[in-house]
Amino acid sequence: MNPYWLEDEAPPRAAQRHAGRVDVAIVGAGVTGCSAALRLADAGLRVRVYDRRAVAEGASGRNGGFALRGGASRYDVARETYGAEQAAGLWHWTERALDRMSELAGDALRRTGSLRLAFDEEEREQIRGEYEAMREDGVGAEWLDQLPDEVPVTFHGAILHEHDGALQPARFVRRLAARAAAAGAEIREHEGVDDVAALDAEHVVVATDGYGHGLVPELADLIWPTRGQVIVSEPIDRVLYERPHYARQGFDYWQQLPDGRVLLGGFRDVSIMDELTDVEETTPTIQASLERFLGELIGEEPRISHRWAGIFGLTQDMLPLVGRVPNHEDVWVAGGYSGHGNVLGFACGELVADAILGDTSSPQLKLFEPARFFA
Ligand SMILES: Cc1cc2nc3c(=O)[nH]c(=O)nc-3n(C[C@H](O)[C@H](O)[C@H](O)COP(=O)(O)OP(=O)(O)OC[C@H]3O[C@@H](n4cnc5c(N)ncnc54)[C@H](O)[C@@H]3O)c2cc1C
């Protein structure tokens, strides 16, 4: 079945064509590639984007639609790993990115906030630690002991992240692509790239996240393709979830859509090794777990309207890689968001574009430096 998000009609887009060599060729027309293309085209560069499929048909049109600030790790874990200044800096940087997304997204982004839930007492301790670390470092968050009564499942406390939102990701990325094209970027759909060295461009940006594994051999062991699966119910006639919810370390995530459907993704941990793959298909084991839990979430036997799989890029330290690929003077990468790329992907597309334009002042470039994996 097709991802629900991709059923939305794509907006019209200017058909740009550049003759010959361009300043920047971008591989991948998801959120990263389109965000980079917009930034570069706005700065007056000649940009060409290639995608084997169409705009947003990779993870950017197959995800859960959570627009969350921060990185893929819990805040307290991030703080312990790379320090309070960098962690708080990263969270605030993504909050600003979310604000810019709001300006571009129109009705594709609803600033609903999100709820990070504790599934049991042990998880409550963990997220309570996360909440306290955030408060100590001046990163806004609210603690909730109880969820609204109408939610049929018991949870053990939650963090309310007011800044977050619910995204129609395909609609958002297609709008970004239309803006990039209006600014002069050429977007070539259904045109795969097999060799980045063969592209006629001063710079190449690899924006393929979990897809395109092996395109740049140096990245093959650093960004691992990982599968996520999603189901969507037929509309239900009551509002149970007013904002995106996620629990069990983010393994399970769900939100109710404006038309009453409930989207649920996750349960990757049910067969975690099988999900380290770039085969974009659903599996009976995970689909059965999703269906069972969706039934609990809505308090009735779910009627499923959509199911799909998508691939995201996982990294060893859960931080993306953004910058030059070592040993390749003119090849750049932005990807490896570890399942957290709606906001990070947008922000990292801009970040890699700024670096190409000569602005390397952002502390995030240091944090995301690909060279950290090349000792
Ligand atoms: C099931 C699932 C649920 C998720 N849920 C969330 C969520 O709720 N919130 C969140 O923040 N993140 C989520 N993510 C992660 C998020 O979707 C991704 O991190 C983000 O979309 C990555 O965007 P991107 O543009 O970098 O890559 P993609 O959107 O994957 O785009 C990469 C593009 O590159 C193209 N490509 C690859 N190789 C080539 C080649 N050789 N030549 C030409 N084109 C090529 C592909 O066709 C694809 O269109 C989820 C991911 C999945 C799979």
CATH topology category name of the largest domain? FAD/NAD(P)-binding domain
Number of helices: 8
Number of E-state strands: 17
User: How many domains, in number, for the residues?
Assistant: 3
Largest β-sheet summary: 8 strands, mixed
| CATH H-tier superfamily of the largest domain | FAD/NAD(P)-binding domain
- What sort of overall outline do the alpha carbons produce when their principal axes are compared? globular
Helix content: 25-40%
Assign the CATH architecture of the largest domain.
3-Layer(bba) Sandwich
Q: Can you describe this structure in just a few lines?
A:
This protein is of the alpha/beta class. It has eight helices and 17 strands.
